[in-house]
Amino acid sequence: MQAYAAAVSLFFMTVIAATFCWAVRNSATLSTSVQPARGMEWYRRVLFWGLVAVGVLVTLATLRSWPHDVTSSQGAVVVTAIGNQWSWDLSPREVPADRPIIFKVTSSDVNHGFGVYDAAGTILFQTQSMPGYINQVRHVHKAGPIPCALHGILRARAS
Question: Each residue of 35-52: pLDDT tens digit?
């Protein structure tokens, strides 16, 4: 499902970029009574392509492997998290420390937010639990409690 969403998103981004490029290319054919200052067209062209280059570089630099990628989890422990109206069912409730954990998150009723926090209360990751769909997130945790979604506690024990 995520590959399909990525492909659809990429398709629409390409259509929007092509439309934008078409508009920029065809805007030069319009005649106006006001002419830009001498040398401004060159400056605008350099600025535009410079911004495109920076955008491509930033995109490539920030789209490295997703840190919670489920496909790279050999030997992982699977934790099922099911959101209910006033509680979470976590199974198992204890996992070995320093091993990948794959959280399979779903809901029995409505959408719920599911988050995992560190001891200082900083969120490590967040996903949605939705009825009829299983979100999967990979995480490696050190020994100690893993506060999950403010409702349940999962313990990571040292191996």
Answer: 667 777 888 889 999 999
